[in-house]
Design brief:
- About 40% of the residues lie in helices and about 20% in strands.
- The strands form five sheets. The protein has a five-stranded mixed beta sheet, sandwiched between helices. The chain has a five-stranded mixed beta sheet with strand order 7-6-8-9-10, with helices on both faces.
- A hairpin with a 5-residue loop joins β9 and β10.
- α6 packs across α7.
- The longest helix has 20 residues.
- The radius of gyration is 23 Å and the shape is globular.
Length: about 425
């Protein structure tokens, strides 16, 4: 990666690296630094920080690329890397394809380095004065915190706010931001030990935050995931407000302030159908794209939208960031609440989501299962039964060996029934060896 950017830049490149709290992130950070500096790239270390902070610093401090070590909402034993280009956007797919080809042993990828590299069978290493260096860059993280505090146009002095930091990256950032803005903060999921990231906490498990909000009489709660690029809310009654609800509130707020470009919001195929109809009644059009924050960001650029996001809590506000940022989302929700002088549940009163059931089934081979003829026929039968009344979506996870089932219609019992039918079919397929 370092050698690629050195070559394309015509000189030494600079990379900024962040990591989440999981145990393996420290080992991966050391390996990345060794590889990058050996290739002649300077590696700047932000240490434990959030994914959006890496995006922000890459863009604002003139780095050639950024690397975040994280497996997001996954358990501690998973890990991976997220790559950002110099604009703080998810790395272009052609560069990722090149890197994956090389890592998969495809030596033809070395052709960009010329015949010498191909004859050596590896990327060229730097030496002597051309070696890269590692630099402590905690200042970048601190500047990002200052950026978050400066974003808010309001004081939170009279608000009691709950934060679930998922024992992840947000533990070192979110509380300091909301405390600096004047809120009385109650935080959980803020004691990472390397093994407990996302464990019974965070945006994928809201029970503890709901309990905290109700028991402490809080005005609102915000839950982040392991690398804090997602945010899910809990209102003062302990009711969960997912990414769809957040988009509804922010779309109306931005439209009122003339900041919803083209009166448009980008949503995914998983977004609740009621979100689209409810926003249309408010004069906001929704454009749908595939699942994944990369696809949301690309569609936003294409359509000229300032707001987009996913039900899972990835929300992109292009006026502020080039990627999803859970803390920014929370700040904007607080703006909408304070300026309207209404609680979150009041801002959502015109949005009543349709019943929707989601199930995740662990499998060994996602491709084999999703391609099973019997499963395809089962799903098609359900689609015919739901025609005009609801929908079913079946898709493989992008990060785990899991098949995700979503059923939506006006009747919760039917949702559960059809979801169970498909889940049972997948289990049967797996029992046969898939």
């Amino acid at each position: 990666m370092g050698a690629y950017f050195n070559l394309t830049n015509g000189g030494k490149s600079r990379a900024v690296i962040g990591k989440d709290t999981r145990l393996s992130s420290y080992n991966l950070e050391a390996a990345l630094v060794a590889g990058l500096t050996s290739s002649g790239t300077d590696a700047y270390l932000m240490h434990v920080t959030t994914t959006p902070s890496v995006s922000y610093v890459t863009r604002c401090d003139g780095f050639d690329f950024g690397v975040m070590i994280s497996a997001s909402h996954n358990p501690f034993y998973d890990n991976g890397i997220k790559l950002f280009n110099g604009n703080g956007e998810k790395m272009q797919q052609d560069i990722i394809n090149y890197l994956e080809d090389y890592l998969s042993g495809n030596k033809s990828a070395l052709k960009i380095f010329g015949n010498a590299a191909q004859n050596m069978g590896d990327v060229p290493f730097s030496k002597d004065e051309n070696l890269g260096r590692s630099v402590d860059y905690v200042a970048g993280r601190n500047r990002y915190i200052g950026h978050l505090i400066a974003l808010s146009t309001c004081s939170y002095k009279r608000f009691k706010i709950g934060l679930d930091c998922a024992n992840g990256s947000a533990f070192s950032i979110a509380k300091s931001v909301f405390s600096a803005l004047g809120a009385t903060v109650f935080s959980i999921g803020d004691c990472p030990d390397g093994l407990n990231v996302n464990k019974n906490c965070g945006s994928t498990n809201l029970l503890n935050l709901q309990k905290l909000v109700i028991e402490k009489g809080l005005d609102i709660g915000f839950a982040f995931d392991g690398d804090a690029d997602r945010c899910i809310c809990v209102d003062s009654d302990g009711k969960v407000v997912d990414g769809d609800g957040i988009i509804f509130v922010l779309a109306n707020y931005l439209k009122e302030h003339g900041e919803l470009y083209n009166n448009l919001a980008i949503v995914t195929v998983l977004s609740n159908s009621a979100l689209i109809s409810s926003l249309k009644n408010r004069g906001v059009n929704c454009v749908t794209c595939g699942v994944g924050d990369r696809l949301v960001a690309e569609k936003m650029q294409k359509e000229g939208a300032s707001l987009g996001g996913e039900q899972s809590g990835h929300i992109i506000l292009s006026k502020v960031e080039s990627t999803g940022d859970g803390v920014v989302t929370a700040i904007k929700i607080m703006e909408a609440i304070i300026e309207s002088k209404q609680p979150l549940k009041k801002l959502l009163q015109d949005y009543v989501p349709l019943p929707q059931v989601n199930k995740n089934i662990a499998v060994k081979d996602k491709v084999q299962v999703i391609s099973d003829v019997g499963l395809i026929k089962t799903v098609e039968r359900i689609k015919r039964r739901l025609e005009g009344e609801g929908r079913i979506i079946l898709r493989p996870s992008g990060t785990e060996n899991v098949i995700r089932i979503t059923v939506e219609c006006s009747d919760m019992e039917r949702c559960e029934k059809y979801c169970d039918i498909v889940a049972d079919k997948i289990v049967q397929i797996c029992q046969k060896g898939a």
